[in-house]
Amino acid sequence: MPFERIKEELNRDMYDGLRFSHKVQFCIAILICLSCGATKKFNFFPVQYIAGNSNCVIPIKGEQVEVVNSYYREYLLGGSTNASSTTFVRGDYIYDIFKWTKEDMSCSEPEGYFIVGKTASQAGPLIAFGISKAFMNFATGISADRFGRKPMEAVGWCIGLAMPMVAIFADNFTTFVSAYVLMGIQQGVCWSTSIFIMVDYATKKHSGFAIGLNETVGYTTLAIINVVAPLILDESRPRISMFTVVFGIALVNLIVSIVFLKESKNVIEAETDTPQNSKKEVTLVWPSGSPSYSSVPRAVCAYTTFVSPSLALVCLCGLMNNFVSAVVWSILKIIMKDSTAKGASFEPFTKQEIGNILLFYGLTKGTFQVIFGTLGDTYGRRKFMYGGLYTVALGLFCLAFTTGYAENKTSAAIGFAIGSALAGIGTSVMYTNLLAAVCDFSEPSWRSSALGVYRFWRDLGYAVGAYLSGVLADNIGIYATFLVDATLIFLVATCVALFYKDPKKKISLSSQDDLSTPLVSREHEMSRASLLEVSDEI
Question: Pick from 35, 112, 346, 442: CA 20 to 30 A from residue 217's CA?
Answer without folding.
Answer: 442
